[in-house]
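Q: I'm building a small set of examples for a reading group on sequence design. Run inverse folding on the following structure and report the sequence directly after it, with nothing in between.
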């Protein structure tokens, strides 16, 4: 074999792998088209195209800049790779009072609006795929406070936040500002810290990050074409 043919073959081998392993998936996933629901399998008609509210793009940037992906995943694995779908509230709710069974594995639509998919490097802390819904449930059960307030408390001092439990997450106090209070305290001021004349309030990055975390929910049941582990369970019973 000549050197020329060897180089061409080498370029073709690596080029094909790069083309079909990187370029093609990137092109397909950057413009995801809505998926039509099958009435027989999904029990509904229309399209599956989850929409996320909040500062998704800015919050995703702050999430990445602070290395949250090092300890937290955003990946609900299929059943052949783990038991994520059967862990309480991790991949959705089994008995959501409004939407039924919303458990599902992660799909590309979950990262819509983000420049980078924060799948995560390790699961030292809990998976955050459904953290927005979990915090809502915890606040409802506690009967006081707000979802935003619980997230802010966790970011400032994870050890004093009962919703997160015995968290080992590092403090992100640098995302908060101590401001002088003249008259009424700011609505988003933390219930602790500060002094008689000052209050701790979240800065722009803290607000973006919390808005992003609150958008992480498994709200809409996925169609059977994307929800393989439960596709058979959701088929109508044979008559």
């Amino acid at each position: 074999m000549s050197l020329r043919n060897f180089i061409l073959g080498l370029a073709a081998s690596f080029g094909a792998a790069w083309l079909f392993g990187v370029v093609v998936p990137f092109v397909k996933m950057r413009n995801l088209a809505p998926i039509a629901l099958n009435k027989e399998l999904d029990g509904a008609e229309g399209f599956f195209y989850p929409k996320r509210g909040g500062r998704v793009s800015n919050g995703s940037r702050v999430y990445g800049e602070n290395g949250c992906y090092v300890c937290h995943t955003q990946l609900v694995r299929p059943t052949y790779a783990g038991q994520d779908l059967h862990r309480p509230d991790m991949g959705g709710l089994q008995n959501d009072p409004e939407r039924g069974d919303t458990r599902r594995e992660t799909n590309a639509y979950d990262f819509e609006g983000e420049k980078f998919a924060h799948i995560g490097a390790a699961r030292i802390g809990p998976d955050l795929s459904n953290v927005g819904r979990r915090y809502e449930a915890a606040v409802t059960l506690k009967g006081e406070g707000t979802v935003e307030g619980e997230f802010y408390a966790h970011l400032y001092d994870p050890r004093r936040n009962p919703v997160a439990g015995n968290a080992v997450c590092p403090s992100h106090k640098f995302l908060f500002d101590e401001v002088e209070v003249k008259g009424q305290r700011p609505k988003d001021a933390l219930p602790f810290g500060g002094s008689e004349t000052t209050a701790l309030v979240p800065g722009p990055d803290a607000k973006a990050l919390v808005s992003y975390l609150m958008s992480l929910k498994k709200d809409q049941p996925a169609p059977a074409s994307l929800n393989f582990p439960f596709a058979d369970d959701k088929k109508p019973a044979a008559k």
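The longest strand covers residues 176-180.
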